[in-house]
Amino acid sequence: MSTFVLAAALLFGCDREQRRLREVGPAVQRSGGVVMSPLQPGAPAPRGVPPIDYQGNAYAIGEGYRLFNWFNCVGCHANGGGGMGPALIDADWIYGSEPEQIFSTIVEGRPNGMPSFRGRIADYQVWQLAAYVRAMAGMVPPDAVPGRPEHMSGPPSGVLLPGDAPAREPARHP
Amino acid sequence: MNPAGPHRAGAWAFAALMSGCKNDIAVFMPAGIQARRIESLWWLYFGILVTIFALVLATLLMALIRGGRRAPGEAVGAAADHPLQHPILAPSPAVERRLTWSVALSLALTIVVLFALLWTSFRTGKAIADHGPQPELVIQITGRRWWWQIRYQDLTASHIVETANELHLPVGRPIRLELTSADVIHSFWVPRLHGKRDLIPGTVATSVIQADEPGTYLGQCAEFCGLQHAHMGIMVIAEPQQTFQAWLTAQRLAAPEPTTDMQRRGRDVFLTGPCVMCHSIGGTIAGAQSGPNLTHFASRQTLAAGTLPNTRGHLAGWILDPQQIKPGVSMPPNPMPSDDLHALLAYLETLR
């Protein structure tokens, strides 16, 4: 009995740890957006919500962190604290905080500065970004957030000598 | 102590034993001064240690044979009476003196040999690191998961050349490498040119290498760096000065303008699709730095850090589903209509 309980407890963490390196099916399409209204003519199309739980997966959140830097989200939102763009770590959400709403914000763009990434980012990567954005705001299960980032975030300050070329993760505009 | 001549036959025999190894990564066929020094050291160690091993085995064999036919005067009976009175454990003063001398001599010899080996190793290390005046050509190599970013430094900013996974060098000239990493620890190793050098994030390691013979030498990441560590190869092409200079001058140019409609459409696919999020092509608006620079992509011989030959079919497979070829790599799958794909391939092939 105790063995069974232990095994069940161990299995509990499996979804969090799963690394889907090769997404297949619609997830790899370049995004056309998500369905925001349940009302549709004819038979309802399946909603664009992924069948996979990106919010509860440590790898997805870690990948979201990497893409957040690679795609220069930090250029406007800084590391969540906001700058030219709104802060992402607070409780204010101009266009909604649900994963689908964040997905939509990234894909469609928003007035006054948020660019549209339609056609530029595969759907699963947008979901990973949405998971990371929600993780910054503390809106994903706390046990899913990786304790440290999957990727190096650049050299610790003070290590480089003057004249040494810094080898940071680049964050330039695409 | 240049063992190149007499040891060449031995090297070939050894290479034949390691039949899986290709010549362009053979440690025993150095093509540069550093690799030659390392090879000399290797053969010196090999010779001394094999001699010692043979001596130890010979001594052991001798002891076995002599112990077998014991002289009649020695105390066989006493040994039978009580184990503690065996001649080994309670030897006569003469035997004890002899044993003491043997052990002391062996100990002294061991210490001397170890220090001598240490000294030769230090000397080799110093000779490799001590490279005289500062070379003028400086190349910055950044290890990334899982490819090599290569940047030819120049005081004129527009002359800086950035490429990936293919290092061109002029023959017979020392070159200064500045090695660093953007993520985890990698190690730069081209066995025919030099020893391993670790790439540590946050610091810059410098190393000077020189290729003495023109040719193509393969290198490999030598520090486990994740899922695709085995697919992190680098190709070093050493060529005569004029050829190298011509290559470098060509690399400084922006990408050529596409000439056919197909190629123009391919460029649009590149610039409006996901490619532009990570790659850059000189002369276009594509300027992202996360993936390899593709300005002269078609002039490179391999794809994905030595994983595949750079042919149209391999490239198409790589673009459509890189995760099938190199699982875990940062490039996402890019399904697209087939005419878009053909246009994109046609455009990428113009990037010579």
Task: Note down, in words, how this protein is organized.
The complex is a heterodimer of chains A (174) and B (352). Chain A has 174 residues and is mainly alpha-helical. Helix content of chain A is 32%, strand content 0%. Chain A contains 6 helices and no strands. Chain A has helices spanning 2-12, 14-17, 58-70, 74-77, 99-108, 123-136. In chain A, helix 3 packs across helix 6 (123-136) and helix 5 (99-108) crosses helix 6. The radius of gyration of chain A is 18 Å and the shape is globular. The N and C termini of chain A lie far apart (56 Å). Chain B is α+β, with helices and mostly antiparallel strands and 352 residues long. Chain B is built from 9 helices and 12 strands. Residues 1-6, 15-21 and 75-79 of chain B have low confidence and may be disordered. In chain B, the strands form 3 sheets. Chain B has a 5-stranded mixed sheet. In chain B, helix 2 (33-68) packs antiparallel against helix 4 (93-129) and helix 6 (261-272) crosses helix 9. Chains A and B meet through loops of A and strand 5 of B.
Strand content of chain A: under 5%
Give the N-terminus to C-terminus distance of chain A in angstroms. 56 Å
Q: How large is the count of helical segments of chain A?
A: 6
Q: Give the structural class of chain B.
A: alpha+beta
Strand order of the largest sheet of chain B: 3-2-1-5-8
The number of helical runs of chain B is 9
Quote the average pLDDT of chain B: 86
Query: Largest sheet of chain A, described in full?
Result: none
**Whole-number radius of gyration of chain B?**
29 Å
